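Hi all, posting the design record for the shared folder.

TITLE: backbone redesign
STEP: 1 of 1
STRUCTURE INPUT:
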């Protein structure tokens, strides 16, 4: 059992560590053990070993980028290693069975970089090759004991075009972190190539863990817990029935991809502006309406993910910040979709103003999310991907390389990284006229055809609602 220092947050472990460039939180000669964040504690609650659950070998996050320009492999390797030196969380392990649990920051080690030549086939696009390569990366097991918690695959088409696929274990990152990662990598690579590129100062994730414990406003925390206790009294989280006898996650997770394009995306943004809301609130309102039609219930609780980055000091930090907020909205009396949007906006704003770690919400509402476990239903979460301040272009040009994130999917379905449990809807606006979505689900719990029907129903509800926001709502069947 680690004996932390007097504030209970850290102690020297006595192990030797290599020095590394790590921004404001550089690793010193002694490796230290640090307290966990509430997010990390929540991951430990979902621990099912190194093959399933939050620490499972397929609980990963994968991103892909087109690289345009001459890629020097040795420099790319060095830049990846620079990122690991700068961001301690990528070389951090968690003592999951210790009392109390703690995290241990290790010396920097080299990132595993795999390089392969992509041979084009007649009639197949480079994007399809890219997608297949990404599928291979998503399917590969990632043991959390294998530090650093970052892997890279470079698929080369020719001397000036390649695809870079980066995989991080989810205990060390979130979707926002992926954007920080590519910006950091681009800067480190360019500097290695001799370009003068500034890198923002960074705070380490362990600093965030410490801030959660010592900078908390206890009075405000108690008010927020009181808010959640009152708001969620009698609530029932939205769940979907699963196949009888299914065991979640035992046969892996799959995904169903979909896209919304053209005028409908513009209409979503336009309606959001009219209602002084956000595109996310429009999308969530349509999801509430779908849930209402499935269940016949008007009192609905759906947990969206938030970025969890309310403190701007940590906007350039890689780490698992994302937070789950169980937003409860009552649709009773709503006559139009615009009415639903007004209600959703109000419930979202109230929830955001009380954005505290989900573990503390659970303390205030014991049993709310565990009551339905094992009843033949699964929880459904909803997420809209957000990152640092949006760029004016999807392309990042740093030094002599251009990086363009690949969002679109040519394959409608396939395998995907695992979730600790439940079903997750992920949506993201990737341009002024394109919205992409993915539903991740357990193959054991759902047939693909059922998810395809569900996606089609949501797409239709969204289309009808946005195009005719003041039309009378149809009663739930």
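Okay, here is what came back for every position:
SEQUENCE:
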């Amino acid at each position: 059992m680690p004996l932390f220092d007097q504030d209970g947050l850290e102690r020297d472990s006595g192990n030797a560590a290599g020095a590394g460039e790590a921004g404001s939180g550089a690793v010193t000669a002694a490796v230290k053990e640090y307290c966990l964040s509430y997010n990390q504690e929540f991951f430990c609650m979902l621990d099912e070993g190194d093959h399933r659950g939050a620490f499972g070998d397929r609980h990963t996050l994968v991103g892909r980028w087109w690289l345009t320009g001459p890629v020097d492999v040795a420099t790319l390797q060095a830049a990846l290693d620079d990122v690991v030196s700068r961001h301690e969380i990528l070389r951090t392990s968690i003592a999951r069975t210790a009392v109390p649990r703690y995290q241990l920051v290790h010396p920097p080690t080299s990132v595993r970089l795999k390089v392969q030549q992509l041979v084009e086939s007649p009639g197949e696009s480079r994007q399809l090759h890219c997608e297949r390569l990404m599928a291979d990366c998503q399917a590969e097991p990632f043991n959390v004991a294998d530090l650093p918690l970052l892997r890279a695959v470079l698929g080369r088409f020719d001397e000036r075009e390649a695809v870079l696929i980066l995989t991080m274990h989810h205990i060390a990152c979130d979707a926002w972190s992926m954007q920080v990662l590519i910006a950091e990598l681009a800067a480190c690579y360019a500097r290695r190539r001799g370009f003068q590129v500034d890198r923002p100062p960074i705070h380490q994730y362990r600093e965030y863990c410490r801030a959660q414990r010592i900078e908390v406003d206890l009075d405000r925390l108690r008010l927020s817990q009181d808010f959640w206790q009152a708001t969620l009294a009698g609530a029932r989280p939205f769940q979907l029935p699963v196949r009888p006898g299914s065991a979640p996650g035992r046969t892996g997770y799959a995904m169903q991809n979909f896209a919304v394009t053209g005028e409908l995306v513009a209409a979503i943004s336009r309606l959001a502006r009219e209602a002084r809301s956000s595109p996310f609130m429009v999308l969530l309102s349509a999801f509430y309406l779908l849930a209402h039609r499935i269940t016949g219930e008007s009192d609905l609780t759906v947990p969206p993910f938030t970025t969890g980055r309310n403190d701007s000091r940590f906007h350039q930090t890689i780490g698992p910040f994302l937070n789950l907020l169980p937003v409860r909205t009552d649709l009773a009396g709503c006559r139009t979709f615009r009415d639903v949007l007004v209600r959703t906006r109000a419930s979202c704003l109230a929830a955001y103003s009380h954005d505290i770690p989900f573990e503390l919400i659970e303390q205030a509402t014991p049993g709310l999310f565990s009551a339905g476990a094992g009843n033949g239903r699964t929880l459904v979460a909803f997420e809209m991907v957000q990152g640092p301040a949006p760029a004016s272009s999807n392309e990042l040009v740093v030094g002599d390389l251009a990086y363009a994130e690949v969002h679109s999917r040519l394959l409608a379905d396939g395998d995907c990284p695992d979730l600790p449990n439940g079903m997750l809807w992920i949506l993201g606006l990737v341009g002024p006229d394109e919205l992409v979505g993915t539903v991740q689900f357990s193959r054991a719990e759902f047939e693909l055809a059922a998810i395809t029907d569900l996606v089609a129903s949501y797409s239709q509800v969204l289309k009808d609602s946005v195009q005719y926001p003041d039309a009378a709502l149809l009663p739930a069947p």
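COMMENT: The longest strand covers residues 60-68.
Let me know if anyone wants the other runs.
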